């Protein structure tokens, strides 16, 4: 302590020698102080900058920097206290204006004071690490004016009041508010945040809490969203007009929280106007608004998505499980396509093609389409229908559109192999009966299936097309080598590769002699050109055109099946035949024969045969003769076979069984493939991997996989691990 | 018209003013060309000067002229001469500086007077930047020699970032600003100084020996302008504060300070402190059979993110050079001459410096032979360059071991009374700095575009700088 004093004393002595006038410092400071007063009183025109600068310089040079610094702070503080009183005195609306005016004056004065004190700013302040003149002037303003007790809350309330007024529709002086908020920003980020932004956000939160409550009680969902959207844009505008740009995120999140996040569930589930209603009534605009607003809050879109998904699943479930609807497969699939189109449109127009929404709607479709085990069949039937007749007169581009849509549905199917089975059957029928409308459309669909499921999936389908093509060539060759056959009945043979086509047990029957001769000729021709092949006749699938002359000379050409032809040809030789005789002569299996006779004798308008007794069903004791009185408006008469377009129950079982049977080798192949690469794997992992590998084709049944594993173990492809029975080991 | 050049003033204050770039200057000239209102008349200490506000705008906002032309002062148009009560001779020099960017001081004006005047106008920075040009080891000229009054030999000289330097003598460090004016000397409990370094233009770190049992010494942070001790760094071992001797220093851009440390018992190694908080953040303990705590040199390698630590002969019997990675406390590279055949040609490493660009460490022996060690190989040997200066015969009485420095692709090596400059990929000798008196150079340092060389005998240091660029 004594040391310190001593040193001080020495410095005093030193100063005295340099500065002649002991009151030099005081005098100089008085000049500067007077100048500061004049500057604040806006009376600076008479001041000499050079003189003031020099005086301030001299004070610092002569080590009175401290006196200058503290003096400047004290003088400025005193002025600001006066100013603060003047601002306090301002009444009502002029308060802000007064504050703003005084702030501008202070800024100008501060600028000039800093000019005078520049040397101090650069040397004394720099080396003592004190705050510089400009920031010091700002913090003095903050402490003496903005934070003075009579101004602080009044200023805040005035500002909040103005904002509230603007929110309720009044017009306010935005320029003034901007100047004041700008002042807060100039005073530093923390001042802006603590003294204005935070209370502003709190007040906004309160305001919107009340308002949103009011709205939700009185408005429906669509109107509420409109209002929320309007408020949000208003607040963003407000930030642009008179707040710091950094406040935008904060105020929007307040509005989002109060107006949307807090009422999310209620809005979405609002009765008669919520999301479900919007979806049902195609309110794209409202849906878009909901999406854009809910996107802003956490879990907002998830909420919308969940409600949409459950609605879609419920709706879809009703659609596919309604027994009424599944009566007509075409109608059924058309309904699915319509729903699909609708949700596509919703996601693209209202939900901005949001991937998560696309996925949600896709997974919902996948969910409910597979609820109905007959979906694969129906989709195939729909395609069948379209390709048989529906596509007439539609432009190629539109055909593509329809097919693409069908492919969308196909993608949802879990049991794609079932679809394949049905598709094969339907395609076979189309090809063999020549019913297909457009080869291009057929091929285009095959290409689509190929890109979707790979070469494997369509190779057989393509094989069917090749067979059709080669058969044409074969026939041309056959008739070319047998020119004598141009007379007499014409035989058209389609040679189908076994395996490519849906196999049906070949049902033999006795063909009429004229035909069987021809058949023999063809057989020898074909086997002559293709050695090592075996031909078997699928008489159950053929058709024949027969010219017939009835009792009164009516000539007709009858289009019948091969079985029907066999039956009708019998009547060339006798007028009356019993069921037993027909059965014996043709050797057609009883159920087929019954159906065949039924369609010849019992269908109104096409009854070319008379039956005794006249009844709907065919009995073993019935007698048949030619219906001489048969008439028809048409020359050509097509006699169908009584067979449903949809397959019969046992047929369905059979298809199902065939599908199951076909799956077995595929499952086994998958197991072996996996085990070959893994060598050792436990049960659960095998099941998981097999399921994954087969997913594009069908959903493998775990019990079936287990059975396949057992079978592979029996055949020494795999073995169980000796120590851990859950592990399987691949045997090379 | 004048106001226009200072419009930006109200918006933002910058602490330092800079000479406007040439382009800017041209722009301003163009806009004011042929405008007679642009002219300004000064009466400085009785002499009349006439100039333009364009010229004065070069002084920047943060100067006397910047403040003078602030819109708030009713100056424009000036009614009469503006009187300034200052030295007219110096004003003429400074006005020329603003006009041309060149500093030409007549012999009759003492430097100190000019600096004083420049300080009044806020033009010191302009003077400093005009005084010498960007550093180039091949264009250096001796600008000054400063004689000290210290009793003992010099330990170290360190260049500051803006042209100043500090010189360690025994237990005191003398601090000089860029005008080579000496400030208050600094000391840490008057303990022997081992190393010293600049954190920035205002902060110096000093490392010193400990005093037995007193807890003195260690490491301290000082203000370069006032010489005040601002902070004393501590070493903690197992949560106990230990007294220690701080050795070589290094700093990095992440505001860390590194120092080799020798404590009472276990605290041997390299300590790390935070420049902002002053707290010890890490300590790399030396492993048995290796030396870190005695290191002669620390060098932070920015690209490799690790610290080079070199302990050299004769401080230890052997040389140890290692690279430490503090992120996983790992010695990522090391080299030592333990076991290598020696004594035949006495090629012992006396200083080492890492050169990240060429992935090598350059070393030097007592005959100023340069050697290189490949950083990419572990356990490589020194590849000595064959250049020999044939001076084994005439060693001075008081030899100083060579020191190395690297600056923007130029390698510097001191030997006896001269400093050699090497350039290019093969480090060809391109220049030699030599001055006849003062004895051997015991240390040198490059920084703030200047080179300081400290001589051992006469207690004098030289300042080398690059002259400003030629007129054409």
UniProtKB/TrEMBL annotation, chain A:
Keyword Ubl conjugation: yes
Stored PROSITE patterns: CULLIN_2
Listed InterPro entries: Cullin, Cullin-like_AB, Cullin_homology, Cullin_homology_sf, Cullin_N, Cullin_neddylation_domain, Cullin_repeat-like_dom_sf, WH-like_DNA-bd_sf
Spans through the membrane: none
Keyword Manganese found: no
Keywords: Isopeptide bond, Ubl conjugation, Ubl conjugation pathway
One of the record's GO molecular function terms: ubiquitin protein ligase binding
A GO BP annotation: ubiquitin-dependent protein catabolic process
Residue ranges of every copy of the Cullin family profile domain listed in the record: 374-601
UniProt xrefs under Pfam families: Cullin, Cullin_AB, Cullin_Nedd8
Cleaved signal peptide residues: none
SUPFAM superfamilies attached to this UniProt entry: Cullin homology domain (SSF75632), Cullin repeat-like (SSF74788), Winged helix' DNA-binding domain (SSF46785)
Family recorded in the similarity comment: Belongs to the cullin family.
Official protein name in the record: Cullin family profile domain-containing protein
Native species: Brassica oleracea var. oleracea
TrEMBL record, chain B:
GO biological process, one term: protein homooligomerization
Top-level taxon: Eukaryota
InterPro entries, A to Z: Beta_prop_At2g24240 (IPR057441), BTB/POZ_dom (IPR000210), SKP1/BTB/POZ_sf (IPR011333), T1-type_BTB (IPR003131), WD40_repeat_dom_sf (IPR036322)
Residue ranges of domain BTB in the record: 38-107
Pathway involvement of the protein, from the record: Protein modification; protein ubiquitination
Record-linked Pfam families: Beta_prop_At2g24240 (PF25279), BTB_2 (PF02214)
Leader sequence residues: none
PANTHER family per record: OSJNBA0029H02.24 PROTEIN, POTASSIUM CHANNEL TETRAMERIZATION DOMAIN-CONTAINING
Protein name: BTB domain-containing protein
Organism: Brassica oleracea var. oleracea
């Amino acid at each position: 302590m004594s040391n310190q004093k001593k040193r001080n004393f020495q410095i005093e002595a030193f100063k005295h020698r340099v500065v002649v006038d002991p009151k030099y410092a005081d005098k100089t400071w008085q000049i500067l102080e007077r100048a500061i007063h004049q500057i604040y009183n806006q009376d600076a025109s008479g001041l000499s900058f050079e003189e003031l600068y020099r005086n301030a310089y001299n004070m610092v040079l002569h080590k009175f920097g401290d006196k200058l610094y503290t003096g400047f702070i004290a003088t400025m503080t005193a002025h600001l206290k006066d100013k603060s009183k003047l601002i306090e005195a301002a009444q009502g609306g002029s308060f802000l204006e007064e504050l703003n005016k005084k702030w501008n004056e202070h800024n100008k004065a501060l600028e000039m004071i800093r000019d005078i004190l520049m040397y101090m700013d650069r040397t004394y302040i720099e080396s003592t690490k004190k705050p510089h003149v400009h920031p010091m002037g700002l913090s003095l303003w903050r402490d003496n004016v903005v934070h003075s007790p009579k101004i602080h809350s009044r200023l805040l309330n005035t500002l909040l009041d103005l904002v509230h007024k603007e929110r309720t529709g009044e017009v306010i002086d935005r320029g003034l508010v901007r100047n004041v908020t700008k002042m807060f920003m100039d005073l530093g980020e923390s001042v802006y945040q603590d003294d204005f932004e935070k209370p502003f956000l709190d007040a906004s939160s309160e305001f919107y809490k009340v308002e949103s409550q009011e709205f939700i009680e009185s408005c429906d969902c669509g109107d509420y969203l409109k209002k929320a959207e309007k408020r949000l844009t208003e607040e963003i505008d407000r930030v642009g007009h008179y707040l710091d740009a950094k406040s935008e995120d904060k105020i929007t999140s307040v509005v989002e929280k109060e107006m949307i996040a807090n009422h999310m569930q209620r809005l979405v589930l609002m009765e008669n106007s919520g999301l479900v209603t919007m979806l049902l009534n195609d309110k794209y605009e409202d849906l878009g608004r909901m999406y854009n607003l809910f996107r802003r809050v956490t879990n907002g879109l998830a909420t919308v998505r969940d409600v949409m998904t459950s609605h879609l699943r419920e709706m879809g479930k009703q659609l596919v499980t309604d027994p009424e609807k599944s009566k007509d497969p075409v109608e059924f699939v058309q309904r699915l396509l319509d729903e699909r189109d609708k949700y596509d449109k919703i996601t693209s127009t209202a939900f901005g093609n949001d991937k998560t929404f696309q996925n949600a709607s896709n997974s919902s479709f996948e969910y409910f389409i597979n609820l109905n085990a007959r979906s694969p069949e129906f989709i195939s039937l729909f395609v069948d229908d379209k390709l048989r007749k529906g596509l007439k007169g539609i432009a190629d581009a539109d055909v593509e559109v329809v097919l693409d849509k069908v492919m969308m549905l196909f993608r949802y199917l879990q049991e794609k192999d079932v679809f394949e089975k049905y598709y094969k059957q339907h395609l076979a029928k189309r090809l063999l009966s020549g019913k297909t409308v457009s080869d291009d459309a057929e091929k285009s669909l095959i290409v689509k299936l190929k890109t979707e499921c790979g070469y494997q999936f369509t190779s057989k389908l393509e094989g069917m097309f090749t067979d059709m093509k080669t058969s044409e060539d074969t026939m041309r060759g056959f008739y070319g080598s047998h020119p004598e056959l141009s007379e007499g009945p014409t035989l058209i043979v389609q040679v189908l590769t076994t395996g490519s086509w849906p196999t049906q047990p070949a049902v033999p029957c006795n063909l009429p002699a004229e035909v069987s001769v021809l058949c023999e000729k063809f057989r020898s021709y074909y086997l002559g050109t293709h050695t090592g092949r075996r031909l078997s006749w699928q008489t159950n699938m053929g058709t024949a055109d027969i010219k017939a002359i009835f009792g009164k000379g009516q000539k007709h050409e009858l289009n019948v099946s091969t079985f029907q032809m066999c039956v009708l040809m019998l009547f060339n030789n006798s007028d009356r035949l019993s069921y037993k005789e027909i059965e014996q002569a043709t050797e057609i299996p009883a159920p087929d024969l019954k159906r065949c006779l039924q369609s010849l004798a019992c269908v109104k308008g096409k009854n070319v045969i008379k039956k005794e007794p006249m009844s709907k069903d065919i009995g073993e004791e019935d007698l048949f003769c030619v219906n001489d009185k048969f008439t028809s408006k048409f020359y050509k008469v097509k006699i169908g076979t009584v067979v449903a377009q949809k397959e019969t129950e046992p047929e369905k079982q059979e298809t199902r069984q065939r599908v199951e049977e076909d799956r077995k080798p595929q499952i086994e192949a998958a197991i072996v493939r996996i085990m070959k690469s893994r060598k050792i794997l436990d049960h659960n992992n095998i099941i998981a991997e097999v399921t994954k590998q087969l997913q594009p084709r069908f959903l493998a049944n775990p019990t079936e996989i287990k059975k396949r594993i057992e079978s592979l173990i029996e055949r020494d492809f795999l073995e169980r691990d000796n120590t851990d029975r859950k592990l399987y080991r691949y045997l090379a | 018209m004048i106001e226009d050049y200072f419009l930006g003033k109200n918006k933002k204050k910058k602490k330092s003013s800079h000479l406007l770039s040439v382009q800017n200057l041209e722009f301003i000239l163009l806009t004011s060309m042929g405008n007679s209102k642009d002219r300004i008349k000064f009466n400085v200490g009785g002499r009349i000067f006439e100039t333009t506000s364009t010229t004065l705008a070069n002084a920047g906002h943060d100067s006397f002229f910047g403040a003078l032309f602030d819109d708030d002062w009713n100056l424009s148009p000036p009614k009469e001469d503006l009187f300034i009560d200052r030295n007219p001779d110096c004003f003429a020099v400074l006005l020329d500086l603003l006009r041309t960017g060149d500093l030409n001081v007549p012999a009759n004006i003492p430097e100190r007077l000019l600096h004083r005047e420049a300080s009044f106008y806020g033009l010191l920075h302009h003077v400093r930047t005009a005084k010498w040009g960007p550093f180039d080891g091949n264009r250096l000229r001796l600008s000054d020699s400063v004689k000290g009054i210290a009793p003992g030999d010099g330990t170290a000289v360190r260049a500051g970032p803006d042209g100043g330097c500090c010189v360690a003598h025994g237990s005191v460090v003398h601090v000089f600003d860029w005008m080579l004016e000496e400030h208050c000397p600094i000391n840490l409990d008057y303990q022997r100084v081992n190393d010293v370094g600049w954190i920035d233009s205002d902060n110096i770190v000093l490392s010193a020996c400990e005093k037995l049992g007193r807890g003195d010494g260690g490491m301290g942070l000082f203000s370069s302008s006032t010489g005040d001790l601002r902070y004393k760094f501590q070493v903690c071992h197992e949560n106990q504060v230990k007294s220690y001797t701080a050795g070589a220093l290094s700093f990095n851009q992440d505001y860390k300070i590194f120092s080799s440390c020798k404590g009472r018992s276990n605290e041997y190694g390299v300590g790390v402190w935070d420049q902002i908080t002053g707290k010890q953040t890490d300590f790399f303990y030396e492993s048995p059979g290796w030396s870190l705590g005695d290191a002669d040199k620390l060098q932070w390698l920015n690209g490799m993110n690790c610290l080079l630590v070199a302990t050299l002969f004769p401080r230890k019997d052997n040389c140890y050079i290692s690279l430490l990675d503090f992120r996983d406390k790992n010695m990522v590279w090391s080299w030592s001459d333990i076991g290598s055949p020696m004594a035949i040609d006495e090629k012992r490493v006396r200083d080492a410096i890492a050169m990240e660009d060429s992935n090598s460490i350059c070393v030097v022996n007592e005959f100023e032979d340069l050697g290189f060690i490949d950083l990419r190989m572990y356990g490589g040997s020194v590849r000595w360059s064959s250049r020999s200066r044939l001076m084994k015969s005439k060693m001075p009485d008081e030899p100083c071991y060579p020191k190395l420095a690297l600056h923007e692709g130029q390698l510097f090596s001191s030997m006896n009374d001269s400093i050699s400059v090497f350039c290019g990929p093969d480090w060809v000798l391109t220049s030699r700095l030599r001055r006849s008196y003062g004895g051997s150079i015991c240390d040198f340092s490059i920084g703030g575009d200047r080179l300081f060389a400290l001589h051992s005998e006469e207690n004098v240091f030289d300042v080398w700088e690059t002259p400003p660029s030629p007129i054409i």
